[in-house]
Amino acid sequence: MPLVLVRIDDRLIHGQVVEGWLRTIHANHIIVANDEVAGDEMQCALLSLATPNNVKLSVLNIEQTAKQILDNTMKDDRVLLLFSNPVDVLRLVEKGVELESINVGGLHFYEGKTQVSKALCVDNKDIQALLSLGKKGIKLEARIVPTDERIDVLEMLVKCGLLE
Amino acid sequence: MSTNKKQAYGAFCLVLHSHLPFTRKAGVWPFGEEWLYEGLMETYIPLLEILYDLKKKNISPQFTVSITPVLMEQLADPYLLSRFEQFIDDKIRRAEEDIKRFEQSTNHEFLHLAKFYKTLFSDVKKVYFERYNRDVLSAFRKLQEEGHIEIITCAATHGYLPLFKRDSSIQAQLAAGIEVYKKHMGTAPRGIWLPECAYRPGYYQNVTKNESYYKPGIDEFLVKNGIQYFISDSHAIEGGEAFWGGKRVGLYGEIFSPKIDYQHKVQGTNFKPYLLKSGCTVFGRCKDTGLQVWSGDWGYPADGSYREFHKRESQSGLQYWRITSRQVSLGLKEVYVPANAIPRINENSYHFNHLVEGLLSKYFHEEKTFGMVAAPYDTELFGHWWFEGVAWLKAIAEKMYYNPYVEQMTLGKYLEANPPQQVIELPESSWGEGGKHYVWMNKDTEWMWSYIDEVEIIMENLVEKYPQPNDKQKEVLDQISREVLLLQSSDWPFLITTGQAKEYSSERFLVHYQRFVRLTDYLNKNMCHTPEFEDYFQKVKDIDNLFMDSVDYKMYKRKEPPPLTK
Q: According to DSSP H, which parts of A7-152 are helical?
């Protein structure tokens, strides 16, 4: 299953993803990897409504996602793998999935988070997960839309004093 | 179907691709501005003459003529036109001096030729001033407006599109080229001559193990820019080995490169156009009509009665000899006799007319369809390299006009009357030797592409950095864009590979790179208000003054994800 983009975006599937990213990466299959959403029929239905007709949607928990990737099912698909937070990405990687790069697209503000950039707000759990991913050699870059500059997320966290 | 001749088997679509590199104030002879002056005197003005003569005889030639934007700008440049006028006066003077010399030496054959040249050059001068009012471009435009020819466009500076790393460069070459066309022609182009017929399909660009994105095919860019059709080389549609035409007599001489076998790629026919998935139409070059003109061994231009291009009289530089035979060395060439060339032109044009009729007839009887033969050539072959070529063009237009089985049509008119019925996928290809990109990317030229790659990225970053420049910054950014377009000309690697102007081309390439770097440096250091900068800037603008109303640096806006930073 060729992964064509791994993206962290707490709004999961929305206009920017569909109009911006899908057109560029030509993904024909979106996998939303999230334990809570996978177990919630209503949320799955809403995601399905947001997905274009010509794109397959799978909503899986982290365990199932790892299995699909490691078993190399759907090998003819071009897959956009969506997460709502960095902790889930780390869990996936710790199950043996090898990633080289992650696009950190949107982590929005709520209480307890610190704003790092226009679309990136993090708390301590996020920071630790991002740091662990970075230590595994995975490139973490922030881009809202495909043509934006790639901003190194860890460097951004250091500049904000959230990392040493 | 045919629109005029009820018995016609199909259409003959002649395509003349006109291009010269930008040479304003960048050398004269042996490399530089004189290319333009020779082109005007030997090809473009004589071509206009036959087109207007045909029109006078109520023969609408229906040629498809590509004029590259960079050539259009030069044909409209008052400085270059005044230099052309000096050039032609100089040619007349040389012929007059030869007349005096040969009168004294009693060399009757050469004397006759010197008088022939004096008349020829004087006639060109006369029509240039009196018939065309020094405005060759408007003369072409008028023919299009009256429906006798179709003018198609090209990339701005004939950039070799498939080898650009960034989509923004492809878009900028096309957008700037189309703006220049609109400026000079007053309308948008329908068709395009892709530089060197170089095409690449869409593909997925891998960035990392788990990131990739789609890079659109060249045809998708064309559709986005309102272009309906382009031309590709024969092998890209028919499959099999790429056409190489033996010793091709191009503008810059002979070149050799490895052959690529397209046997298993596609199996279409060049007797009809195809649709690509993007909605753009592609016409394929007819191999047979191509070989009949391009082959250095047995093509028409190799006829012994025709004038020899390479041998020149030592004092005047005029050409007094005929080809005689391909096996005869320059030292043994015989004197050119223009009158003896005339029956050869007649025979060659008769043969060509018969060839086209035969091809169309065969296809018509096999497929029961009104087919077409697309026959593209470099315009400069006719008149400049092949002295008798323009007369041959007139002769084939006349013969085909009277041939009930062949309809002459522009590509646009053929497309209107016969829209494509099938979809095809084209492989990456060009009409260059070997069928792909070797001529432009090889061990002698690969160094240039690292410069071009670097410049492409910097341009995108400049657009990001200066979203709302002040007037001066905008002026500088636009000039920087012009340097990029000039740097990207496919002429430079081409001339290096052919060996005809290796040093000149390397220098030109590096000069444009240097101007790009220096202007960018001034801009980024906020020094565009200094007298030192202004002095340099005015000099650069005076030399590289093309596309003044047609380039906006924002044409280089990033169209795809940025590359990964290390």
A: 15, 23-25, 35-38, 41-50, 62-70, 86-94, 124-135
pTM above 0.90, yes or no: yes
Query: How many CB atoms lie under 10 A from the CB of residue B505?
Result: 24
**Chain segment B474-493, per-residue pLDDT in tens:** 999 999 999 999 999 999 99
Strands A151-152 and B240-241, bridge-based pairing: unpaired
Quick check: helix, strand or coil at residue B23? coil
The CB-side HSE value for A12 (13 A sphere, CA atoms) comes to 21
- Say how far apart CA B363 and CA B359 lie, in whole Å: 6
The token pair that represents B107 in the structure block: 């060399």
Model pLDDT for residues A134-164, shown as the tens digit of each residue: 999 999 999 989 999 999 999 999 999 988 8
CB contact under 8 A, B558 and A98: no
Tell me whether residues B208 and A26 touch, CB distance under 8 A: no
pLDDT (mean) for B129-156: 98
Question: pLDDT per residue over B502-517, tens digit each?
Answer: 999 999 999 999 999 9
Beta strands A79-83; A3-9: pairing state: parallel
Mean pLDDT of B105-114: 92
DSSP string, A47-70: HHHHS-TTSEEEEE-HHHHHHHHH
Query: CB under 8 Å to B553, separation ≥6 — which residues?
Result: B459, B462, B463, B466, B474, B477, B478, B480, B481
Pull the structure tokens for residue B93: 């003077």
Q: Which residues contact B50 (CB under 8 A, 6 or more apart)?
A: B61, B390, B391, B393, B394, B397
**Tokens standing for B413?**
């008119």
Residue of chain B whose Cα is closest to the Cα of A7 = B211
pLDDT, tens digit (0-9, with 9 covering 90-100), for A14-73: 888 888 899 999 999 999 999 999 999 999 999 999 999 999 999 999 999 999 999 988
Q: Given the DSSP bridges, would you call strands B149-154 and B192-193 parallel, antiparallel or unpaired?
A: parallel
Q: Two tokens at B373?
A: 């033969």
Report strand pairing: A3-9 vs A101-106. parallel
Question: What value does the mean pLDDT take over residues B8-29?
Answer: 96
User: How far is the C-alpha of B224 from the C-alpha of B203, rounded, in Å?
Assistant: 17
Contact residues on chain A for B210, CB-CB shorter than 8 A: 3-6, 81, 99-101
Give B171's contacts in chain A (Cβ within 8 Å). none
DSSP string over B349-400: HHHHHHHHHHHHHHHHHHH-S-EEEEEEEEGGGBTTTBTTHHHHHHHHHHHH
